[in-house]
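Task: sequence design from structure.
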């Protein structure tokens, strides 16, 4: 059945209800893992791990680690769950998620709704999954010390995943983006570095960044990331800007914008970071990916890995397969023999 036909019914539902139904559906059905392998040209080694393809599930879809194992079966090369907070919290008041159908975009102001680390940790511990898993962590809204919250989450999850993502970029938790500033970021990364040493942890740590930043912010972030030997950057989270050219009347809603309208801004941020850090650390590109072409543009801008969420909402669960097929063809058309060769070619 055509997904756009199904989506016409889904669009009549409240977005959060539709998402909850999707999670329940994925939890309760068997998805066969087909024996066909990903194209060899898409393989890439990052964090000392071999990714069969660069397409990942972005944080926000599987907030409480309910279905990430099912996403591997749908063809994702890796999945990131969360954002997970130390204590359970409801997040911001509803309604807080809005579909901008004409723009293929979403605005959300969720505010880290989370079942809390204890419940999510127990769920991950009992899942039998061999896929590459990232865990996205953040602070509680009413936290006395947000840095302590990040440290507590790291302590609980570092040995259960392939990498930890420190989310300092959501626009929906008040003042969270202050961690982009020099001293705040330095203090946070120092404490994460300290706990890694105490635990003798080898788990890679990446930092998720806002698209709404200045060139000075980029310099600050790059300097700190290199100083504290972080393993990667996720570029970018949702934007509180970019509303002027949107068609939907829902563009006035407060929150972070994701999807097609953020693609060019995200690519620009990826290019700027790539020019600063080159291939010293890998960049995970997020924002507006919904086809092989948009994936390819992000890679040529400097991304080694990719993530999508909004593209999954509008294009359906088989979008991953089509992206991989299109991306393989585009790489070969341009004479590349591997994905790695194409990274950052638009930055030269």
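Answer:
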């Amino acid at each position: 059945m055509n997904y756009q036909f199904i989506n016409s019914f889904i669009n009549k539902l409240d977005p959060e209800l539709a998402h909850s139904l999707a999670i329940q559906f994925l939890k309760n059905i068997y998805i066969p893992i087909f024996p066909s392998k990903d194209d060899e040209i898409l393989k890439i080694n990052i964090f000392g791990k071999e990714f069969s393809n660069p397409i990942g599930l972005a944080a926000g879809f599987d907030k409480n680690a309910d279905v990430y194992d099912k996403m591997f079966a749908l063809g994702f090369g890796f999945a990131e769950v969360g954002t997970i907070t130390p204590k359970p919290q409801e997040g911001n008041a509803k309604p807080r998620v809005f579909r901008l159908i004409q723009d293929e975009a979403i605005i959300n102001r969720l505010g880290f709704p989370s079942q809390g680390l204890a419940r999510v940790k127990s769920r991950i511990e009992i899942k039998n999954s061999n896929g590459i898993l990232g865990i996205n962590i953040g602070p509680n809204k009413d936290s006395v010390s947000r840095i302590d919250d990040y440290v507590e989450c790291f302590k609980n999850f570092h040995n259960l995943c392939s990498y930890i993502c420190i989310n300092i970029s959501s626009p929906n938790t008040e003042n969270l983006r202050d961690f982009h500033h020099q001293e705040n970021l330095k203090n946070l990364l120092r404490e994460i570095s300290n706990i890694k040493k105490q635990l003798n942890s080898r788990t890679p740590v990446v930092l998720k960044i806002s698209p709404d930043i200045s060139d000075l912010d980029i310099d600050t972030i790059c300097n700190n990331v290199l100083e504290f030997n972080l393993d990667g950057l996720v570029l970018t989270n949702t934007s509180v800007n970019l509303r002027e050219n949107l068609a939907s009347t829902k563009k006035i809603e407060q929150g972070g914008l994701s999807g097609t309208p953020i693609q060019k801004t995200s690519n620009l941020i990826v290019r700027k970071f790539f020019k600063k850090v080159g291939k010293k650390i890998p960049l995970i590109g997020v924002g507006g990916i919904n086809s092989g072409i948009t994936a390819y543009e992000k890679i040529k801008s400097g991304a080694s890995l990719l993530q999508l969420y909004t593209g999954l909402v509008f294009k359906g669960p088989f979008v991953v397969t089509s992206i991989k097929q299109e991306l393989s063809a585009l790489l070969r058309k341009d004479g590349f023999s591997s994905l790695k060769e194409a990274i950052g070619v638009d930055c030269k």
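The chain has a mean pLDDT of 91.
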